[in-house]
Amino acid sequence: MLTVPFIRENKELVLAGLAKRNKDFSATIEDILTTDSARKSTQAELDASLAEANRLAREIGDLMKQGKKEEAEQRKAATSSLKEKSRELEADLAAHEEKLRQLLYVVPNVPHVSVPEGKTPDDNMEVFIWGDMPALGDFKKPHWDLIQDFDLIDFELGTKITGAGFPVYKGKGARLQRAMINYFLDKAQQAGYKEFMPPLMVNEASGIGTGQLPDKEGQMYHVTADDLYLIPTAEVPLTNLYRDVLLKEDELPVKMTGYTQCFRREAGSWGAHVRGLNRLHQFDKVEIVQLVHPSKSYDVLEDMVNHVKDLLKDLGLHFRIIRLSGGDMGFPSALTYDVEVYRGAQERWLEVSSVSNFETYQATRLKLRYKTRAGETKVCWTLNNTAIASPRILIPLLENHQLQYGRVKIPECLVPYMWGQRFIGPVG
To answer: I need a labelling partner for 117 at 20 to 30 A (CA). Which of 194, 270, 401, 409 fits?
Structure first.
């Protein structure tokens, strides 16, 4: 969340940065500054009223000691009037503060200076590409056909149990999914990340803290009876482990990883381009999160990007790194890199990971701070990396590694997690 002092001191910079998101926030920014001025004025009036009430209370005490009861009663009448005025001012102040809070909630993060302008994914900037285009012959099949041939996942059974977008993994499909999760977790721990198993539901304060709430796109599942939300990413509970925490500077960076089931309504169109595993309501992700010193954050961002690069190189997948334009970035992000893998059979790029620097945006909401060695209290910077969304990585893994004899070669890095199995073949 942006702070009012930052907005007031950098108004033109804020407006220019937000313009990259292709939405005019000028009226909202003006409303924030006007509301804050009204808040300050009301606070000053309230402070003056309370001070006057305290002064009169002291006078009443002195007058009573002097036996001047009539003058004391006059002061009491004035005090009663001031108390009533103070109650009204306190109500006004609370209204200004709530309005200010709600206004700040709807203003996204200011994009980093390197973020390109743009309105659609077509305006994103390719900054890195690795590997060769999959050379598949006429034998190539899309992943949904391979899934059926190998009996890996049952979409109809998931629809029967829950609904569309909730697949049932079975047999070798379940084992392959678990193999990827364990591999990603092991690589994260080798890179110094501490593993957590967080809850799959969070309260409203946690959703607000990381910027998922207010839910502007209606993508979160809300358990209304208990006012809880199913998590869209492990980033939410992991980062909230440090909500309202004051760290020591020497404790930074904090490096966390976690595997969770994730849930998104994915409201929108359905068609061939989102067939099979391309769009789901429930999916698996291994997340890595860092809480860092401001001076280290953009170096850490590059390290997190490199972490994903190494995973995809080990998996032998053709991929590219995209710097998102202002119109395609997430609400709390200052800079985001998407990692896309080429789907050989579908001949399309697919996002499998996203790496973001949120700067102070989340930490301000979370009241996540650190104390410097000099004793100053400052706000941490937070970063997040989906490393990696396993159903989506399963798509190119099956399509790109399929062989002409109706089998799929398992990447060498996953073989130990597959009990030595090197190929998946048709059933029957």
So the answer is: 270
What would the pLDDT profile of 307-362 be if each residue is shown by its tens digit? 999 999 999 999 999 999 999 999 999 999 999 999 999 899 999 999 999 999 99
Binned at pLDDT 50, 70 and 90, residue 268 comes out as: low
The SS3 of residue 312 is helix
Q: Which amino acid is at 237?
A: P
Sheet holding 381-389, edge to edge: 125-130, 319-323, 335-343, 348-359, 381-389, 282-292, 254-263, 194-196
Give the separation between CA 42 and CA 40, rounded to whole angstroms.
Answer: 5
Q: What is the pLDDT of residue 41?
A: 97
Residue type, 250: D
- Going by C-alpha positions, the residue among 6, 86, 81, 9 that lies closest to residue 44 is 86
Q: What is the DSSP string of 77-144?
A: HHHHHHHHHHHHHHHHHHHHHHHHHHHHHTS-PPPPTTPPP-SSGGG-EEEEEESPPP---TT---HH
Q: Which DSSP letter does residue 244 get?
A: T
Report the alpha-carbon distance of residue 356 to residue 180 in Å, rounded.
Answer: 22
Residue type, 280: L
- If we measure between CA atoms, which residue out of 23, 130, 123 comes closest to residue 323? 123
